[in-house]
Amino acid sequence: MAADLASVAAKLAAPGKGLLASDESTGTIGKRLEKAGLPNTEDIRRAYRELYYTTPGIGHYISGVIMFKETLYQSTAAGRRFVDVLADEGVMAGIKVDEGLAPLPGGGEGETYTKGLEGLEAACREYVAAGAKFAKWRATLKVTDSLPSDLAVERNADDLARYAKICQDCGLVPVVEPEILIDGTHSQARFGDVTERVLGATVAALWRHGVALEGCLLKPQMVIPGAEAEGGKVAAEEVARHTVAALRRVVPPAVPGVMFLSGGQTEEEATINLDAINKEARVVGRCPWALSFSFGRALQASVLKLWSSDQTRVTEAQQLALSLARVNSEAALGQYSTPAGGHPSTLTGDSLRENFRGWSGQAPAGGTVPLQGGGGEEVVMAH
């Protein structure tokens, strides 16, 4: 089993390949569709996913696709299962298995844990039977001068490790996502300190729970300043320097791949920063992992804009999807250079940051709170 998991993880982190994060929940993708002027119906969601999964040549740049449960069981308009269509392109199917965020009892204001451990083993076995090869679980950590608290760091690290162990026992490679939120005024240096602390705790928890590091992947945020930080954004070289330094201090060489989330950066910024990280890793050395991508909006925003304007423009939308995948593949090799016509994004300069991706406010005694699970939907508060 361990050898099989390591083989799958290595393929997912193959040189120049990354993950398409298309695991938005029904509510989250619905908000994006509705913003684009489309109804949030199952057929529209299925057609939008089909656009990506049937793009000719997508397997040259994408090794795996993370899906929401609904999508894992869907098929093309012609009746072929998405899982099988992707496999024909050499792309593995993955599945989001967490159930969203809830307020962390005893934690600081806005701190959360992730729900879904109860019943996870049975669900994972079901997903394996449906053709899934890997899974993803997202935790979030809020940054201020005093946060994240020790409780939030340790609780989320332990839950991520428990999830990872269950996945591996069921035959799934776990993608471990401790997302450090960009919301706030924190500096890049503060973000780097928190990154080291969170990733270090997560790796230690993986070790304690007996997770085979060779058979899992990490999905962190790049080390960037808070979205409201004084001075604004920093150069790609600074993103690379801080990110690589943090990873070298806490990520063991046994982990095959670090698959960055795009986290509200523009499509072009995500590509340029990923390229700079790989160039920096080559210069400083001793960076044994693949440094690649697990992008959602940074691979989808321009495509959705085009397709939503005219759903008959599937071929054009697929060409755009392929172009976005290609430039990020180049960036994952440290070989990106701006094409003559510019980055393929049609939204250059537009931030992809959405509303707060964690939770804000004090936990009430009961009822619901405005929790953001992967991209914006309200989640019932846990008791």
Explain what you see.
The protein contains twelve helices and twelve strands. It has 383 residues and is α/β, with parallel strands linked by helices. The chain has an eight-stranded parallel sheet. It starts with a helix and ends with a strand. Residues 361-383 have low confidence and may be disordered. It comes from Volvox africanus. Residues 335-383 are annotated as: Disordered. Keywords: Glycolysis, Lyase.
Secondary structure: helix percent = 40-55%
Number of strands: 12
Give the termini distance in whole angstroms.
37 Å
Helix and strand composition category: alpha/beta
Mean pLDDT over the full residue set? 92
Percentage of β-strand residues: 15-25%
Supply the key terms.
single chain, 383 residues, alpha/beta, two-stranded antiparallel ribbon, 12 strands, globular, disordered C terminus, Aldolase_TIM, EC 4.1.2.13, lyase, FBA_I
How is the topology of this model organized?
Elements: H1 2-12, E1 18-22, H2 26-35, H3 42-53, E2 62-67, H4 69-72, H5 82-88, E3 92-96, E4 101-103, E5 112-114, H6 120-129, E6 134-141, H7 150-170, E7 173-180, H8 188-208, E8 217-218, H9 236-250, E9 257-260, H10 267-284, E10 290-295, H11 297-309, H12 314-332, E11 368-373, E12 377-380
